[in-house]
Design a protein that fits this description.
alpha+beta; 2 helices; single chain; two-stranded antiparallel ribbon; four-stranded antiparallel sheet; 6 strands; about 110 residues
Length: about 110
Amino acid sequence: MNRLPAAKSILATVALGVLIVGCSASVQVGKSELKMSADKLAALVAEKLAIATGQPKPDMSCPQDIVGKVGNETRCELTAGDGSTLGVTVTVSSVDGDRINFDFEADEAASPAK
C-alpha cells in the first residue's frame, strides 16, 4: 500500500517539472513585430504616387505604423493644394526578411476642402 502514495508523489513531481519547463519555454519565445513607421509609409506612398502620375510628390499622411503581416491594412490621406483630400488604402502584400512590401489604392473620389 505504500507504493501507491509514492507513485502519486513521483507523478506529481514529474508533472510539476513539465509545467515549469513549459512556462519557461513560452516566456523565451517571442520576437518583436516588424513595423514600418507612419512617416516612412507616407513618404513611400507619396513617392510611388508621384512616379505613377508624373506629378510632384503629394502631401501624404498616414495615422499609424503598419505591422509587417500580409493582409494588414491602414488608411492614409493625400491632401491636394486646394485642400481637398483623397483616401488611400495601403495593404501589406508580402514580407521578405525585414522588408515590408505593400500595395495601395486611392479612393475613386476626393473629399472637398474643409
